[in-house]
Amino acid sequence: MMRTDPVSLEIMRNYYLSIANGMAAVIERTSYTSFIKETADFGAALIAPTGEFFIYPRNVGVTIFVGLNLLRAVEECGTLEPGDIIIFNDPYTSNGFASHLPDIQVFKPVFYKGKIVNYSWAFVHCSDIGGLAPGSISPLANDIHQEGLRMPPVKLFKRGEPNKEVETLIYANCRIPTLNHGDVNAMVAAVNTGEKRMLEMIEKYGIDAVDASMLDLLDQGELRARQVISKLPDGDYKFADYLDDDMASDVPIRLALTLKVKGDEFIIDFSECDPQVCTAFNVPSCGTKHSYLYQGLINYIFSEDPYIPINGGIARPISVISPKGCITNPEYPAAVGTRHPVSARLYSAVLGALSQIVPDRVPAAGAGQAAMIVLSTPEDAPRVGRKITVVQPMNGGSGALGDKDGADGQDHVAGFLKNTPIEILEQEVDTIVDRYELIPDTAGPGEHRGGYAIRLDFEIVKNNSIVTARGLERMRFEPWGLAGGKAGSLCEVKLNPDTKGEEALPKISVLNPVRGDVISIRTPGGGGWGDPFLRPTELVLNEVRGELLSPEKAKEAYGVIVKKQDGFYVVDEEATKKYREENKTTEIEQWNFGKARREYESRWTAEASAKLAVKLQELPPFERSLRKHQMHKVLDKRCGSGPVTVEAIEKAWGEF
């Protein structure tokens, strides 16, 4: 039963939103690092006493935390008093609320007459928090202690006074203490603003109305989410996607799930998912229903009910089964710095399961990465130290939908991130950007094409510069097409492109280029949706004229033949009609996974991979990844060119 009448609740929701948006504006305007000010990797919101976000901005900063719960972090703090401000970044003492160490979280309890009313919260992605590499995150880290300073929830302010000992410890353990101090102060200002505005609201509407409205907003989010889910047919829907590898071997990481729809609830089961890995590709859910595991479902609910209040109530009808020791629930001290590629691929996998129910309501696979390319350069004398900044969040194209093309250069999975203007980047760190552009012929073909990929070339202008990258993905398995659409393009990294010394690079962990080197990052293109031969010829022609699509690709992918007439490309309508009729597809694939995945799954079938994943759960978590690599090596040799069978897995398992 609602405690607040609908009109009053809408008034209060808008008031809360104004508070949260104001907090976010404080961070955006007063933070120090460009990754916060320009790219917007930050957040601010209000949290109910239940630990759930009861109000969360829709269009400001990072939007993927809405399903998290703060209660574990609150419990870790002990007794809270007025004026206390808590800071933390440790996943393992916050149930994954902080999902890796660079995400520094700050919250302040809002007291009214001695009682905690709610919590004012903010976070920023810190450009460096110590660790083994500039920017803190190396994909090759093998435990969390290599990834920087771990902060369990501790008091940054006690009763309104700064805790100098904690401040000293934090800034002694990072490479850019002044910038980090500025960003933390921006969060402090934001949560103080949230507290001030909340107290003003209580004085205006009364504490009873505020208490009731917070709970009502959560209940409303839950109710409307259940209404969306209840429109889907009950059933179990399996899907799997892959990360290229864990960088410790060339064995892919299989992310398998079963989406169960039961009435007005979703259940996601990761029991057949691969185990935690020995590198940083793990998602620290700590056994909770972490929203990184099902962000695709939350976004689907948003899309089906665009006016739903954005809050943690939306996550209430969703539950998760995630066995301890799998990649979606690693055991401490597993490294987790590169957790985003896993969550990005799970985003696609969840939507792949949904596509079996509503293929026209979900997108094909997008680039599935938001690779953070970090550049560190030495300071000029007489200053000592290093400059560190994220060059760009390298998204790729998004997947196409049943009614529109994919977005170019911006995947759905990280659409909240903006690019850093080149002028700002070149002011803050020593580099020259040579190219930053869309890449022709990279969109997955379809009646609605996927989004085009991005190319970024930046030049190293100082020796002793260091480049790190996390999240480079889809260098092996293309983003899949849906409902007859074709797969998108792969990610590539090149050193000194378009020269005699051009070199293709693998995924970057830590790269030590020399002055004059050029690093070229080419992201994946999104998958297409629908039969490409149904794409209107005028849309194909527009992209040929815009030099995003070559005439050769127009014919090969879309069956559209163009020719030059009076210096302009035009469609040869008669030749196009004939070509499309002679080459049309009679069977429409539900998914087009691309050549590499087809070849891999012809040997490692879904049944074989699932069997091995379940067998690995018999071992202690930190033995599983090694055993998986050993089993692949043995079975690839033993089974030759034929498929790996369940019987072969059982036999090989017994020999270890």
Defining key terms:
656 residues, alpha+beta, Helicase, Ruva Protein, domain 3, 7-stranded antiparallel beta sheet, 5-stranded antiparallel beta sheet, 31% helix, 20% strand
Question: What report would you give on this structure?
Answer:
This protein has 656 residues and is α+β, with helices and mostly antiparallel strands. Among the domains are: 220 residues, no CATH class; 175 residues, no CATH class; 52 residues, Helicase, Ruva Protein, domain 3. It is 31% helix and 20% strand. The protein has 16 helices and 24 strands. The strands form six sheets. A seven-stranded antiparallel sheet has the order 2-1-5-4-3-6-7. A five-stranded antiparallel sheet has the order 14-15-21-18-19, with helices on one face. It has a four-stranded mixed sheet with strand order 8-9-10-11, sandwiched between helices. Helix 5 crosses helix 6 and helix 7 packs across helix 8.
The helix count comes to: 16
> Could you give the distance between the termini?
59 Å
**Using only CA atoms, what is the Rg?**
25 Å
- Please give the order of strands in the largest beta sheet: 2-1-5-4-3-6-7
Largest sheet: 7 strands, antiparallel
Poorly predicted parts: none
Tell me the overall shape: globular
Beta content: 15-25%
Fraction of helical residues: 25-40%
Q: How many runs of DSSP E, i.e. beta strands?
A: 24
Mean pLDDT: 95
| Derived structural class | alpha+beta
